[in-house]
């Protein structure tokens, strides 16, 4: 296989570990924990794994651990650094005992159920060190939620002598990991389950998980692209670029990219929700900025739009929630809806079962957007926000608004648009130094959690704005992050998603600067990720984590 010059050089990079994980560890137990909300319900649902203490590892005396066979699963969307988590686990379990073995389940959680696996030997691991992607074993979105699936997992893990399973995933996948840990504990299978916080979306974070891996690299890639587009805009001076950014419901990606590139408009879904802004109000805000810039002779600009925006616009939110309930998996209405072969008939049926208000909104949407809301769901029942073309919806609406403004003399410029969606471009980039080190540390740390017999924990590495040597490694009980939420029309225990908080330092920084950035062109061009060179270029963590930790 031909590999690029960068890949070949980058393979030699030795990721940094916290001092505490360099050879052996001493486990220090902290306070017992509670779930973030709904304590009684969560405790009842997780009798074996609820309330466990926080764990910190300190450097310790050399200990003898028995060899351990470990299974690993990559779950959900790709995020840069997944391969380094796996190489960290591999090196970690070999450090614990050279006879340990690592098995990778293929194609995501489905690989565990279908008994599809591969042994990850040193040769395989070496090929993937410091590379982007999840192709070492593939990923998938199968939801592990049936006991029959868990039992199939037990079967293959017993056969392979696997004592612990590591699930590398986002909030939904780690929720599954938690349920699995509880089940295996209740069944006395002796199989431990450990989670690793993955997602470019940055929405799996809390006091103990400062960031999910992949967020750093992905936002650096998008910021490079946005910077390039900004420079094009300011060169040609003839287009407004409407850029939608991946990230599901949370706007962390959009916010981070805005802090890095200082565009003219940044929409934050969480703010839209809090201020109950309607689509019309958002359009007025955007058109107002376009008109003001045009008055200064600047008929160009850049607007960042989070992919989850429509879910937060009040009238859209109500519509989506009605659709989620009406089209809940297995419901009579879902069956009926599925029976329509024509999309037009399907839409007419849906419009007929919605409340009058929601039907009005639904029928006013372009048919493509309406279809995206009803037809495209992921296996977790979420609307597939990355498929909704919000940037075009807003671009069209701003165009109409500007036409009206032109008639009454409120807009005298031109409005040409270009649309972009940055998402998949960033998910498999070669991990930044930060993600390469962080991921390797998460994996290495997970191997100590296993060696120490822990289950139901998420691998945690903190103090991330300090040099890697000073990072704090340990474990957080997954039940600590849980609350009850409505999913598929039923209440379920799930990890609470971290959305952008309006009193957070990163948002406040945006809010304090956005009026200036809107009118005065203040673009910043971050350029591509650098892997070698001065620390201030190569080793900077995200602005989000830097501002959050500076408070
Ligand atoms: P995860 O939560 O699985 O990490 O998803 C990340 C993500 O990239 C989202 O930002 C995006 O909405 C989604 O995956 C797209 O999913 P798919 O890869 O199935 O198209």
From TrEMBL:
Q: Where is this site: Important for catalytic activity?
A: 198
- The answer to whether keyword Magnesium applies is yes
The annotated modulation of its activity is: Non-allosteric.
Q: Which reaction does it catalyse?
A: beta-D-fructose 6-phosphate + diphosphate = beta-D-fructose 1,6-bisphosphate + phosphate + H(+)
GO:BP terms for this protein? fructose 6-phosphate metabolic process; response to glucose
Location(s), subcellular: Cytoplasm
Q: Which UniProt keywords apply?
A: Cytoplasm, Glycolysis, Kinase, Magnesium, Metal-binding, Transferase
Pathway listed: Carbohydrate degradation; glycolysis; D-glyceraldehyde 3-phosphate and glycerone phosphate from D-glucose: step 3/4
Q: Which Pfam families match?
A: PFK (PF00365)
Q: Name the residues annotated as site: Important for catalytic activity and substrate specificity.
A: 172
SUPFAM superfamilies per the record?
Phosphofructokinase
User: What are the names of the required cofactors?
Assistant: Mg(2+)
Its Enzyme Commission number(s) read 2.7.1.90
Tell me a GO cellular component.
Answer: cytosol
Chain positions recorded as diphosphate binding sites: 77
The molecular function terms in GO held by this entry are: 6-phosphofructokinase activity; ATP binding; diphosphate-fructose-6-phosphate 1-phosphotransferase activity; metal ion binding
Domain of life (superkingdom):
Bacteria
Domain Phosphofructokinase per the UniProt entry, residue ranges: 69-347
HAMAP family, per database record: Phosphofructokinase_II_Long (MF_01980)
Which family does the record claim for this protein?
Answer: Belongs to the phosphofructokinase type A (PFKA) family. PPi-dependent PFK group II subfamily. Clade 'Long' sub-subfamily.
Q: How does it assemble?
A: Homodimer.
| Name this protein carries in UniProt | Pyrophosphate--fructose 6-phosphate 1-phosphotransferase
């Amino acid at each position: 296989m031909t590999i690029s010059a960068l890949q070949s050089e980058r393979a030699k990079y030795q990721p940094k570990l916290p001092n505490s994980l360099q050879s052996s560890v001493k486990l220090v137990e902290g306070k017992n924990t509670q779930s973030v909300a709904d304590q009684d319900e969560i405790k009842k649902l997780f009798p074996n794994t609820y309330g466990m203490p926080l764990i910190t590892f300190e450097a310790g005396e050399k200990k003898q651990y028995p060899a351990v066979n470990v299974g690993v699963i990559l779950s959900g969307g790709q995020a840069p650094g997944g391969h380094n988590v796996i190489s960290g686990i591999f090196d970690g379990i070999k450090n614990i005992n050279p006879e340990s073995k690592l098995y990778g389940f293929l194609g995501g959680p489905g690989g565990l159920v279908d008994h599809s696996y591969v042994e990850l030997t040193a040769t395989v691991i070496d090929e993937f060190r410091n590379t982007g992607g999840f192709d070492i074993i593939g990923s998938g979105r199968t939801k592990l939620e049936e006991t029959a699936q868990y039992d199939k997992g037990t079967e293959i893990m017993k056969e392979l002598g696997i004592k612990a399973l590591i699930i590398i995933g986002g909030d939904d996948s780690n929720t599954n990991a938690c349920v699995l840990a509880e089940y295996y504990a209740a069944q006395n299978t002796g199989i431990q389950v450990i989670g690793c916080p993955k997602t470019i979306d940055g929405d799996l974070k809390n006091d103990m998980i400062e960031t999910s891996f992949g967020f750093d690299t992905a936002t650096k890639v998008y910021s490079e692209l946005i910077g390039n587009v900004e420079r094009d805009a300011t060169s040609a001076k003839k287009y407004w670029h409407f850029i939608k950014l991946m990230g599901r419901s949370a706007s962390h990606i959009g916010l981070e990219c805005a802090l890095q590139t200082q565009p003219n408009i940044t929409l934050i879904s969480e703010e839209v929700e809090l201020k109950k802004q309607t689509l019309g109000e958002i359009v007025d805000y955007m058109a107002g900025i376009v008109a003001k810039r045009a008055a200064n002779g600047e008929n160009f600009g850049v607007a960042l739009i989070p992919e989850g925006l429509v879910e937060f616009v009040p009238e859209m939110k109500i519509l989506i929630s009605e659709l989620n309930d009406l089209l809940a998996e297995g419901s009579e209405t879902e069956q009926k809806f599925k029976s329509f072969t024509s999309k037009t008939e399907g839409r007419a049926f849906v419009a007929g079962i919605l409340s009058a208000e929601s039907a009005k909104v639904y029928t006013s949407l372009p048919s493509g957007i309406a279809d995206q809301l009803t037809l495209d769901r992921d296996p977790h029942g979420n609307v597939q926000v990355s498929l909704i073309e919000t940037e075009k919806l807003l671009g069209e609406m701003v165009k109409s608004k500007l036409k009206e403004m032109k008639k009454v003399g409120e807009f005298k410029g031109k409005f040409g648009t270009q649309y972009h969606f940055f998402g998949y471009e960033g998910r498999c980039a070669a991990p930044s130094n930060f993600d390469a080190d962080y991921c390797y540390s998460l994996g290495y740390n997970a191997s100590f959690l296993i060696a120490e017999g822990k289950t139901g924990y998420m691998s945690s590495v903190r103090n991330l704005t300090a040099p890697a040597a000073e990072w704090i490694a340990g474990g957080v009980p997954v039940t600590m992050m849980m609350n009850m939420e409505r999913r598929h029309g039923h209440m379920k225990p799930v990890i609470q998603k971290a959305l952008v908080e309006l009193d957070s330092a990163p948002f406040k920084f945006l809010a304090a600067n956005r009026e200036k950035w809107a009118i005065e062109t203040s673009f910043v061009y971050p350029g591509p990720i650098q892997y070698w060179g001065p620390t201030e270029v190569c080793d900077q963590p995200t602005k989000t984590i830097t501002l959050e930790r500076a408070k």
